[in-house]
Amino acid sequence: MAIEQISRLSTGGATPKVGFVSLGCPKALVDSEQILTQLRAEGYDTAKSYDGADLVIVNTCGFIDAAVQESLDAIGEALSENGKVIVTGCLGAKKDASGNDIIMSVHPKVLAVTGPHALGEVMDAVHIHLPKPHEPFIDLVPAQGVKLTPKHFAYLKISEGCNHRCSFCIIPSMRGDLVSRPIADVMLEAENLFKAGVKELLVISQDTSAYGVDVKFRMGFWNGKPVKTHMTQLVEALGGLAKQYGAWVRLHYVYPYPHVDQIIPMMDGNVLPYLDVPLQHAHPAVLKRMKRPASGEKNIERIRAWREMCPDITIRSTFIAGFPGETEEEFEYLLDFLKEAEIDRLGCFAYSPVEGATANELENPVPEEVREDRRRRVMELQEGISKKRLQAKVGKTLRVLIDSLDSSGGVGRTSADAPEIDGVVYVKPPYEPNRKLKVGEFFDVTITAADAHDLWGEAN
Ligand code: SF4
């Protein structure tokens, strides 16, 4: 582009500014990143405060009641502080009992409402209420897009929606059936992220094991070679790419289907020995009431086999305590499973009836205090398991990715720790004065202490 053209573009009218509030899960975060990337591509600026913005977009979450309230409050605040508000995200797709749009009923002054994963609709609404700059600075968009996570890790969304119909979940009614992204697009995004300095890529979706089912595992092309739209081929290709950049790939939301066994031998350092497998329960009757995918799989045997193939594997899972109809016996079956499985990283939620979920119609709901008590019992059991498993790491030297620095050194994560949901390692800096801890870099750290959640160590 000639210099005259650049100056003509840059001296045009004031650049329209959009404020952005991003709520919800990592999948919503990826939607936010795509909207921000598109805004930047079209020449919009982002504003850091409500009064500096010409318009505000709020990306909402509608999963549980507390998230709905948080989203409605955020919309209210944006309306009173700015006045021009577009709403997107899961809450945008929710209706109240009489079939009315929840957001419009509470906040009728909102300019437009869309559901999740609606980049096109959001941009249409932005164009109506804040016309786009005459000529976009397309060259200002970094190839990796705009990221909301720190520069050294990023989420990579491989598909949208879900073909399952778990009875406690309303995501399919909000996000629709599974739609897998073309494998070439996913790989290109991964490559751009690595080129931009990302050292850890977190693969997310509603059901990572199902990647490609909707397109019958269609053949795609990456780097001139055929690659199937299939989880195993995707992980293999991502692992190869991560190796070139000395980076990590971490897998989330993996259901324990038999083909997952083929992933375990790929966990060689670049594909992390880490599987986030949301099991939710162990008792067959409860899993059946939950309508869980892969509920017929023998999970204990599968976990045992994974650990035999890869002794360092970290297994993360989430569970629900007090699901409708759960008897004390079924709950104790879950406790026995947890004692045997020794899940490394575990989250447990007391069942919370989500509006619109079919599980709310099941017989024999468990009283709230029993649900809470069962959640507490799971976490109490897990505390001991986690303590024991972390204690076994003391004395070992582990690779740690540094996330932040503080006055006593740095805080980082090993292969066993996904950001925000797992533990951390508090790292003392190396003794050599010219070797300093740096955010986004890997260090070998000798572990000196552990509690039930975190580790402490010294960088070598
Ligand atoms: S697998 Fe079940 S819980 Fe997960 S998104 Fe699909 S329906 Fe919801």
From TrEMBL:
Pfam families for this protein: Radical_SAM, TRAM_2, UPF0004
Single GO term (MF): metal ion binding
Tagged with keyword Nucleotide-binding: no
Gene3D superfamilies according to UniProt: Methylthiotransferase, N-terminal domain (3.40.50.12160), Nucleic acid-binding proteins (2.40.50.140), tm_1862 like domain (3.80.30.20)
Domain MTTase N-terminal: 16-131
Top-level taxon in the UniProt lineage: Bacteria
SUPFAM superfamilies: Radical SAM enzymes (SSF102114)
Subcellular location: Cytoplasm
Enzyme class: transferase
Entry-linked InterPro entries: Elp3/MiaA/NifB-like_rSAM, Methylthiotransferase, Methylthiotransferase_CS, Methylthiotransferase_N, Methylthiotransferase_N_sf, NA-bd_OB-fold, Ribosomal_uS12_MeSTrfase_RimO, rSAM
Annotated residues for binding of [4Fe-4S] cluster 1: C25, C61, C90
Amino-acid positions noted as binding [4Fe-4S] cluster 2 in the UniProt annotation, renumbered to this chain: C162, C166, C169
Cofactor: [4Fe-4S] cluster
Keyword terms: 4Fe-4S, Cytoplasm, Iron, Iron-sulfur, Metal-binding, Ribonucleoprotein, Ribosomal protein, S-adenosyl-L-methionine, Transferase
SMART domains: Elp3 (SM00729)
GO BP, sorted A to Z: tRNA modification
Note on how the cofactor is bound: Binds 2 [4Fe-4S] clusters. One cluster is coordinated with 3 cysteines and an exchangeable S-adenosyl-L-methionine.
Stretches assigned to the TRAM domain: 391-460
Function of the protein: Catalyzes the methylthiolation of an aspartic acid residue of ribosomal protein uS12.
Cited HAMAP family: MTTase_RimO
Similarity comment: Belongs to the methylthiotransferase family. RimO subfamily.
Stored PANTHER family: RIBOSOMAL PROTEIN S12 METHYLTHIOTRANSFERASE RIMO, RIBOSOMAL PROTEIN US12 METHYLTHIOTRANSFERASE RIMO
Annotated NCBIfam families: 30S ribosomal protein S12 methylthiotransferase RimO (TIGR01125), MiaB/RimO family radical SAM methylthiotransferase (TIGR00089)
Name of the protein in its database record: Ribosomal protein uS12 methylthiotransferase RimO
Lineage: Bacteria, Pseudomonadati, Pseudomonadota, Betaproteobacteria, Burkholderiales
